[in-house]
Structure prediction request, 457 residues.
Amino acid sequence: MKKLTLGLLFSMALFAGACSANRSASIGSADLPVFPDEVRAEFRHAWGGYKKYAWGHDALRPISRRPKDWYRHSLLMTPVDAYDTMVIMGLTAERAEAKDLILSRLSFDYDMSVQHFEVSIRILGGLLSAHQLDGDPRFLALAKDLADRMLPVFNSPTGMPYRYVNLRTGKTSGNLSGPAEVGTYILEYGTLSRLTGNPVYYEKAKRAMVELHKRRNPDTGLVGGGIDVDTGRWTSAVVGVGGGVDSYFEYLLKGALLFNDPDLKQMWAETIAALNAHLAEEVNGRLWYGRADMNTGKITQPVFGSLDAFFPALLALGGDRDRAARLQQSCLAMWNLHGIEPELIDYRRMTALVTVYPLRPEIVESAYYLYHYTGNEEYRRMGERFWRDLVRRCRTSVGYSGLIDVRTGFKSDDMESFFFAETLKYYFLLFSPPEAFDFEGVIFNTEAHPLQLTIDE
Ligand code: DMJ
Prediction:
């Protein structure tokens, strides 16, 4: 694959100075704007809890103050996911200790089976952006080692990846998958191809997307919600823009932009037309995207949720600012139902169906994209509202906790690594001076790890 030249200027060091001026607003004062130092302080608070009670583990349980690991051996989910946010926030001391931990302890040589999707978006994406922001080649070496160990997932009869892979033996499993777990690799694997000069990573990730796209229904243009990667048969005909599918759509557009790939551009154009034709629905003057049957194109489930809330950002990135703005208003209405968003609502009845809130970032991600493109302060005010509710309802004495039920506020004892990678990063960027971050110079992976649009050879 062709490598592009041109350097990308990340002047994140400027951030620390530019953003930590003597402006601060106390948490809870609803009439004062939020400044980025407040978000940075909350990042420090949560990182402090991780450091004290879960150092070297994947995550902290923020109520019981115990560590949590996904597998038998820690993959340092939190430090790797958090690292580029520290760089962006100008957290020098935290960055140094996280880097030391990652470079001295992170290993993939374990006889254990891991979920390819989660490890790709969090660890592979985190290591690649760490390398690009920091310049240390050891991050890249770790990324390459990980990708090489995971590559066997693509050795299915269709080229669409299996869900799990043993990091030492390369043994794969999990043939029943879905669009997100099939088609969310081109940004990370493609960046690795650029950085190593080896096209194999890009080719395998792209083939998976092409295989998925070509199995769409020829009349509706819709893919399904579940697929068997051995046979290529759909296992679920129901498709929406949320969980299980979401980031496949995201990577069609972002892959097209990051690699200037005409095939992906075409696939994105066909896909977004189908989604707008069949999934978009007006209810009481609000725009929503429901779940439809891929074969009939009819909406079968009028539901939308916190994962779907990334879609305004994607619409905005694709140039459809009008639908993006309208959908973001619907997301705000969803948030306002209970003063924090439920995982899933019935948008025709405006009632919560799934009531958890696991500290998700998508709604603030969309506020940030819309603010970037429009400069409309309304999106910052919206973000302030989200931020105040998040702090008020999810903060614990050692970090932040998801909610089991947004109606009662009962906490879940979980602080996912994406809270550091995405949620806090997008709040920080939304409240920072726009010129402090080169938004147009990067493409964020689905875990908010910024990947450079153009790189030096
Ligand atoms: C993240 O891990 C990624 O954004 C993924 O694509 C789906 N959403 C979670 C956070 O909500």
Summary: The mean pLDDT is 93. The CA atoms of residues 190 and 203 lie 8 Å apart. The first strand starts at residue 59 and ends at 61. The pocket of 1-deoxymannojirimycin is lined by residues 121, 246-247, 307, 360-362, 418, 446-447 (CB under 6 Å).
